[in-house]
Design a protein that fits this description.
With 952 residues, the chain is of the alpha+beta class. 42% of the residues lie in helices and 27% in strands.
Length: 952
């Protein structure tokens, strides 16, 4: 693996099924897997879809058929998902003793550098080989003449002769050598390696040994040393020394051993062995690899008959015929033979052979090679099955596939492509792709090019990402996603392209439907608030960017709640649909009409000046004024209040725009409903609205900090026999400076901004707590609490109040009276009746406040089961001077007596008025004449005002 990591190019090792066994460092860096373990995963994980298909349909079959593939252009998925073009080379071999495939990848832009490195390496190798050959000739010539280093040492171990090479080798001149002993001439390193041999040669024994010497400049030199004794008679007089430098020879031997081992390993990995047959002698030589292929021991030399007997009869016959043809006609052969093994398995052996001729063209020998192709044949069969499976898969998958040649001519298409294009394969073949694959832009309906055009032009895979519609031959349309990849041959030339696409019609439909639902109101089909605000934001940005002017309208329906309460919510929904159609008819198609919620609508009038916008708003008011909503036998007049704001560059934000429009809309309502209020910078109504907005934060703070204060005003009985204390709870707000703020200052803002119900909850909860905390409440007969119209129409408030009253218990409930204004009761009739019944069921009494201020009071009174009628103060103030008020009050008293409820007169501030009310038979009176409001905590401590009738 270390050797593979040192290679300059990416290398991949897989088994014969494409499972990754090893990746070298350059490949890991290329695919962005420097540390991750991807072994055991399919090699397809490294390639994009188009390259995977080409790998399965072309590369693997070629590799298994030819034993190698060269220069195949594919793409790999590089780091961060980038597709990197590579050229792939592969051939089978073995890895850790199992069959494998070695894949070498050249990144296109790095190939030139790699080839240059190879050329340089080859030049160096050839130069080394030439130098080696020269060295070998030099060594051979020296060996034939005089040794490189020659010296003579006598028996006393004194140097008597040394040639120039010897002197140069030890770095001394002859004067310093001749006549000197060994210890002075030779280094300790040389002596350590030589003394044992010197002792032996002086005994008359020739010596031959190798010696390693350190060089002055670093490194080692290898020498071959011969010691030859100089024997005269039986006397050893000394010894001759001949030393040869074999450093290069050692290097060559090492290289040869490495090369031989590499060739042996390569042959073993590839399962290849050589053979040679001498036709004159019949001698057959097998290499170790050939023996291994045939399951024979190393060194086995079979006879011809033994050789042939290793194969099946059919294979034997074909081999005999091939040998005969080769010997007689010189024909080469390449066969696959079946060879039974002792374990019962049949191996496949590839046998190739050729004739070698001598100078006279006579056949000198047959040479060849054996290769065990059992695994390859098995894989070929599997790949053939996989190829067939792939073909069947492409025929049956949902994705449509079309292949073309380099001129965009259709070559093949699968059934899915036939179905979607409407072209049978038999008719589509040979036709231009644009004729078969006709696509248009989904939005513009303009014809667009297929991705094959860009793929062939850029010679790379293309995924356009456009919103394309495929128009079939029969006119049907499919929303598609498509991609194209080039098809290349072994040399990298583009042969054509493969186009893959699939139907996303339903996916786009569902996506569009989800988008529509997210941006439209389900009841009316109009744009909803979220989408309206998005379009408002875009139009505001355009106004600031271009200086253009547009119009913004906020609309609020009048009397919609009356229809809802009277006829039910389903009828109210039907009314909203009719109003939506009426509004849509009043604006242009390019304008934006939205339902903002409930009975509120918004309109964006694009490129519309204020005068035009006001005319459009007035036209809507006029149409709504003429509109009558009819349900069964009831007819309702539905008006609309409209706030109009110029949408131009003056606004700092869309929030300010919407606040101004909302304020203008409420100003229209306050001005009498069914009218248009146009916003101006100096608009007094808007200023008042902004003042109310400021009150909302103070109200919120008061609710959070308990800054409200409860007061009470007594209600005095005017008829004998009435016992106990009656009072109405009044509300004040404590300002930051400690001053008390009357409800007239903050309750309108609370009503406007839907805070009244929260105030009602605070008051009712604190009143219940106060009553329960009194040590003795026997003298308290009735304590009245005012409720707003919002609470009466709020079913969540109903549930909350019911829970609180049940928790309070019947003793406290018997002391409570809830006051509901006549207007609130009539406006929310159904909710009011349900709430009154709930309260009375808990033992709480109910009073109808401000009676007479609304319309048709007597008619609605029959449906409202109340205990008290509180006559509106406008009839009491001028009772003594206005005969009409006198008649009205007498009428109210008579009606109350008929329906069995008691009457209460408000705003009594004059003794004459009180006397007149007593004469009319009013049951209770309330006003400054009788009692000025005081803190609730003091209510039970004070006495009735002097001179007043009995008050309890």
């Amino acid at each position: 693996m270390q050797f593979m990591n040192q290679l300059p190019c990416p290398v991949l090792v897989t088994d014969m099924f494409g499972t990754m066994l090893a990746l070298n460092a350059p490949l890991r860096e290329l695919v962005g897997q420097p540390d991750g373990d991807v072994t055991g995963q399919p090699m397809n994980a490294l390639f994009p879809p188009a390259s995977r298909i080409f790998l399965q349909t072309h590369v693997w079959p070629t590799l298994l058929r030819d034993g190698r593939v060269s220069e195949i252009h594919l793409h790999v998925i590089g780091a961060r998902g980038v597709r990197v073009p590579v050229m792939v080379n592969a051939q089978p071999g073995a890895w850790d003793g199992v069959p494998a495939c070695f894949w070498v990848l050249f990144v296109a832009q790095e190939r030139h550098h790699f080839e240059t490195a190879l050329v340089q390496a080859r030049g160096q190798a050839e130069a080394s080989a030439t130098a080696l050959a020269q060295s070998q000739r030099f060594i051979r010539n020296i060996a034939d003449t005089i040794p490189g280093q020659v010296a003579y040492w006598d028996a006393q171990r004194l140097c008597q002769f040394a040639n120039r090479h010897y002197l140069d080798a030890i770095g001394l001149e002859s004067d310093a050598v001749l006549g000197q002993p060994l210890q002075r001439v030779l280094s300790a390193e040389i002596l350590d390696q030589s003394l044992v041999h010197i002792d032996a040669v002086l005994k008359g024994e020739p010596q031959e040994f190798e010696r390693t010497v350190s060089l002055p400049g670093g490194g080692k030199a290898h020498t071959l040393v011969y010691y030859v004794p100089d024997v005269v008679g039986s006397q050893v007089n000394g010894f001759f020394v001949q030393i040869s430098d074999i450093t290069r020879l050692k290097a060559v031997e090492g290289a040869l051993r490495t090369s031989q081992a590499f060739l042996q390993r390569t042959g073993a990995l590839a399962g290849v062995g050589g053979w040679e047959l001498d036709p004159r002698t019949g001698r057959l030589l097998w290499s170790e690899g050939a023996c291994h292929v045939h399951g024979q021991p190393s060194g086995y030399e079979p006879r011809h008959e033994e050789w042939m007997s290793l194969y099946t009869p059919d294979s034997r016959q074909r081999m005999e015929q091939a040998l005969a043809c080769a010997l007689h006609a010189g024909d080469a052969f390449d066969l696959e033979l079946d060879m039974p093994r002792p374990d019962g398995q049949v191996h496949s052996v590839r046998a190739v052979g050729m004739v070698e001729r001598g100078p006279g063209l006579q056949v000198e020998r047959l040479v060849g090679a054996f290769q065990d192709v059992t695994e390859r044949r098995r894989m070929a069969r599997e790949l053939e099955g996989q190829h067939e499976l792939l073909r069947v898969t492409l025929q049956s998958i949902g994705d449509a596939v079309i292949t073309t040649d380099a001129r965009e001519t259709v070559m093949w298409l699968n059934p899915a492509a036939e179905r979607m294009t409407g072209w049978p394969a038999s008719e589509a073949l040979g036709r231009p792709l644009d004729e078969v694959f006709h696509i248009v832009d989904e939005a513009t309906r303009q014809r667009i090019d297929s991705p094959v055009v860009a793929c062939l032009a850029r010679r790379e895979s293309v995924s356009p990402g456009h919103q394309a519609l495929l128009v079939s031959r029969g006119g049907g349309e499919f929303g598609i996603e498509d991609t194209a990849a080039p098809i290349r041959n072994d040399q990298g030339a583009v042969l054509g392209a493969v186009l893959v696409f699939h139907d996303v019609t339903e996916q786009r439909r569902l996506s569009g439907e989800m988008t529509y639902r997210a941006t439209h109101d389900p009841l009316t089909g109009l744009v909803n608030r979220s989408e309206f605000e998005s379009q408002l934001q875009a139009l505001w940005a355009r106004a600031r960017r271009e200086g253009s002017t547009h119009g913004l309208l906020f609309l609020d329906l009048d009397q919609f709640k009356l229809v809802n309460d009277t006829c039910g919510h389903s009828v109210g929904d039907h009314l909203l649909k009719q109003v939506s159609r009426l509004l849509a008819d009043a604006v242009r198609s390019r304008d934006t009409l939205a339902r903002l919620g409930g009975d509120e609508f918004g309109i964006l009038l694009e490129d519309c000046d204020p005068e035009q916008a006001e005319r459009v708003a007035q036209k809507i008011c006029d149409r709504m004024d003429q509109f009558r909503f009819v349900h069964e036998d009831k007819r309702f007049r539905i008006g609309v209040s409209i706030g109009m704001v110029p949408l131009d560059a003056r606004w700092s934000s869309t929030a300010a725009l919407q606040q101004a429009a909302d304020t203008a809309c409420y100003a229209a309502k306050d001005g009498g409903r069914n009218r248009v209020h146009v916003w101006f910078d100096t608009d007094a109504a808007v200023s008042a609205r902004q003042f109310e907005v400021q009150w909302t934060s103070r109200i919120e703070q008061a609710l959070d900090t308990d800054a409200f204060v409860l007061f009470a005003q007594r209600i005095v009985a005017q008829r004998t026999g009435a016992a106990g204390l009656h009072a109405e709870v009044l509300l004040r707000m404590r300002a930051e400076d400690g001053a008390l703020v009357l409800p007239g200052a903050f309750l309108p803002a609370a009503e406007r901004f839907h805070l009244a119900s929260r105030i009602d909850r605070w008051v009712l909860e604190h009143v219940i707590h106060w009553v329960g905390a009194q040590p003795s409440i026997g003298e308290l007969q009735t304590l009245s609490v005012n409720l707003s119209g919002q609470s009466v129409g709020d079913r969540a408030f109903h549930a909350w109040a019911g829970e609180k009253l049940r928790a309070a218990g019947p003793v406290i409930c018997a002391k409570l009276c809830l006051e509901i204004t006549e207007t609130a009761a009539v406006t929310n009739l159904a909710d009011a009746v349900a709430f009154i019944q709930q309260a009375r069921g808990a033992g709480v009494r109910v009073a109808l406040d401000d009676f007479g201020a609304g319309a048709s009071s007597f008619g609605y009174l029959k449906n409202l089961p109340v205990d008290y009628l509180k006559i509106d103060g406008q009839f009491i103030r001028d009772l003594m001077t206005d005969p009409l008020d006198d008649v009205a009050v007498r009428c109210f008293v008579d009606v109350a007596r008929v329906v069995g409820v008691r009457t209460v007169a408000e705003f009594v501030d004059q003794p004459e008025v009180l006397a007149r009310l007593q004469a009319m038979g009013v049951d209770y009176a309330q006003g400054y004449l009788l009692h000025r409001p005081e803190p609730l905590s003091l209510l039970l401590e004070t006495r009735a005002a002097p001179g007043a009738p009995a008050a309890a």
